[in-house]
Amino acid sequence: MSKSKDFTLGLLSGALVGSVIALLYAPDKGSNTRDVLSYRLSSYMDELTHLIDKLSDEKESISEAKRKGDLVVEDARKRAEDLINEAEDLLGSIEKAKENVKESE
């Protein structure tokens, strides 16, 4: 499981266990306890939504960085191929020049 799923599962499990313990040991009226639990659950859900949004944004940032990295690699590969072709052309020109010098001797 990924870290984010483990964290989410832990957060939800903790909220559930905390709620059950609060209900069992609550010295307050049931309606008050339910209101408190409802508020806490709502705040946990808001926090969870915020964390999910944050993780989603980070994933998008990573995807964008990977895309840019791939473009840089592709550009470097193209430039290397161009340099190799230029070097081969230069070597071919040198070979022709050598042959011309040998023929004129």
TrEMBL record:
| Pfam families, A to Z | YtxH (PF12732)
Q: Which parts form a coiled-coil structure per UniProt? A: 45-104
Q: Which UniProt keywords apply?
A: Coiled coil
**The name this protein goes by in its record:** YtxH domain-containing protein
